[in-house]
Amino acid sequence: MTPPYAIFASSTRRATGLFVVIALLCLIISDIAVTTLNPWHEMGRLMWGIVTPDFLHLEQLSTALLRTLAFGFTGVAIGSVSGFMLALIFHLRFVRVFCAFIRSIHELFWALIFLQFFGLHPLTGVLAICIPFAGVFAKVYSEILEEADQTPHKLLPQGSGLISSFVFARIPDAWPHLVAYTSYRLECGLRSSAVLGFVGLPTIGFQLESAFSQGNYSEVGALLLLFYLLIATLKFWVRPKLIGIYVLAAPWFLGSGLPIIWGNVARFFTEDIIPAPLRDAGLSGAESFNQLLLWLQDIFIHEALPGIWNTLVLTQIALVATGIVTLITFPLISRHFGNPTKRFFGQIVLVVVRSTPEYILAYMLLTLWGPSMLPAIVALALHNGGVIAYLIGRQSNELKLRMDAPTGLNRYSFELLPRLYGPFLAFLFYRWEIIMRETAILGILGIHTLGFYVDNAIQDIRFDRAMILILITALLNILIDSISRKIRDRLRLKSASTCEA
Amino acid sequence: MSSLQLSNIIASYNGKQVLGPISLDFRSGECVALVGASGAGKSTLLNLLYERTKSRAAYIPQDLGLVQTLSVFHNTYMGQLASHSVWYNLTTLLRPRKKDINEIAPLLKRVGIEKKIWSAVGELSGGQKQRTAVARVLHQHAEVLLADEPVSALDGPKADTVMRELITTYPTSIIALHDVQLALKFAHRIIGIGDGKIVLDAPSQDLCLNDLKDLY
């Protein structure tokens, strides 16, 4: 009797196989060349810079760090409060659609939009963070409230009142989960805040970009180290009792930026974002409609389609690469392998890759290796792989193996992997949408994904085109999200929303 | 209160009928024990009864329905949530008032968990949790008590005390019990349920232990 091929034995394995084959096909047609003449020399200099950090400009560094914190705290606080309000009415269909829409647009895209009419005012940065965050908070908060035990609420005496019932019977048991998720998102908010510097806001991304472009790697090192320190020590200085103080103080440290010119705001909405053919008042209704169709066709063929294609190709490669990085690195923090010293260093490695926003990683690698998809793939795989490896590693620590369990590679492949593969795939598919959102945005760095065309349109001051392209990006993202949800349901992968990364 | 009548009620779960058709008549001032093997349909019947009597009943379901992160005091206080204003309730959540503590502490003493008044329910043992749920219904002062195995995690003497407290506060009560001795001791009337049907309905004074054996 011939044994069945193990590869096709289960639906999860078939799904894995399919995704790997797609990624390989994408890899063949993608451009992954290293084009700079001396990439390793520059890499070496960067590494040297990181181990010899230069804290000479400490005042500049600390201002940038303070601004990063201020934007992060303000944005996440407003996003969390508005997300909570939305969570209360999340059963309404239009609220769900609205939230899916606002969270499908990346913080940097929001920032690029607001920059056009608020300029470099602090409001731009705060809104760029709080809008997409509110969308995510609304979804996850409503899931947490739904998952909590509903019986206490049912048992209340009749006439207990909406608010009393809610705060007594619904909030308390959901509270720890709400707090855990919010504090996790605070970390994400600080990363987003850092990245906003790349479009001109006064956070560390701004300093990082200027130091990096001048080849001042020791200053880059100092900035990164301070940022890692900030993220790694988060749990020590963000205490429940201090949160209120931070949130109240944060708005005062956003800096003054540049004043808002209200004329720009009005023009943006009444002229800039109106599709060009419609702005021409001389045309009749039918004519302008025809022009509009031609205009849309032009955007679609020359910008949206290539953008979508490249975004999808890069996303699929990055997704599988993320999976590979996860499977290789989770043993670093697993107690089933190695000794405590190894785990300690493993933790540091994972904190570093996880706290470095993929945008910053991609920016650095792109400068070192030259423009191709390779830096983006590596950046996405390292960051997202680090995030999932951390979660899977933690989950592996909860597994109890029998005392005579095999060791080494046998332990990995027979004892751990089979038990962790389901959660691993669940996290990976969950991050699919996040990877896609990030892939689109990396276009701003010069890779021809959707962000590239958005950025070009903005540079050419054609905001109408930019808005259409951002809209297409959002729809693509919502599509990937729903496919991912279908696959997770199909494979019966439990998606743990409360501990997701 | 007016008596409670059920006629030809049916309950199904996943398209399969698990209870009924059952017709029952409960009288005011009567303590009824529901007995029967697990899975016979006692909990389903109690859930149905609660659905119909919500406005005048206090209910202890099998999983108790406590808020794990709130204290014993607050869980008990929730029995009177409807009699206070929102503002009063919200401030009680932050800082309980003397008046309410003076009311709830003696209640907790009666069921023997007065020392745990400020402990979060999640940290308590199974028996202590059960007594918290009992304290909640004692504080609620509804017309009828519905309870699903309210003393299953308590040992002999403690179970007796708690049952007595429940029945003194709620002369009208319908209680599912797996301990038939307790049922004979406290209930006026015993209803035996088997396979979703009523297999026995008699005054407890006419019954002895042996009559109830066949139900299990």
What's the gist of this structure?
Chain A has about 500 residues and is mainly α. Chain A contains 21 helices and no strands.
Account of the protein in words:
The complex is a heterodimer of chains A (501) and B (216). Chain A has helices at residues 11-29, 39-51, 58-88, 93-103, 107-118, 122-147, 151-155, 162-196, 204-213, 217-232, 234-237, 240-249, 262-272, 276-279, 285-329, 340-355, 358-369, 373-396, 408-442, 450-459, 463-490. Chain A has 501 residues and is an all-alpha fold. In chain A, helix 3 (58-88) crosses helix 12. In chain B, the strands form two sheets. A six-stranded mixed β-sheet of chain B has the order 4-5-6-3-7-8, with helices on both faces. In chain B, strands 1-2 form a two-stranded antiparallel ribbon. Chain B has eight helices and eight strands, in the order E-E-E-H-E-H-H-H-H-E-H-E-H-E-E-H. In chain B, a hairpin with a 2-residue loop joins strand 1 and strand 2 (16-26). The longest helix of chain B has 15 residues, at 126-140. Chain B has one domain (4-215): P-loop containing nucleotide triphosphate hydrolases (Rossmann fold), CATH 3.40.50. Chain B has helices spanning 42-53, 72-77, 86-94, 98-111, 126-140, 156-169, 180-186, 209-213, and strands at 4-13, 16-26, 31-35, 57-60, 144-148, 173-176, 189-194, 197-203. At the A-B interface, helix 7 and helix 8 of A face helix 3 of B.
Question: Which descriptors would you attach to this protein?
Answer:
heterodimer, A: 501 residues, mainly alpha, MetI-like fold, 2 domains, 21 helices, 75% helix, 0% strand, disordered C terminus, B: 216 residues, alpha/beta, Rossmann fold, six-stranded mixed β-sheet, two-stranded antiparallel sheet, 8 strands, globular
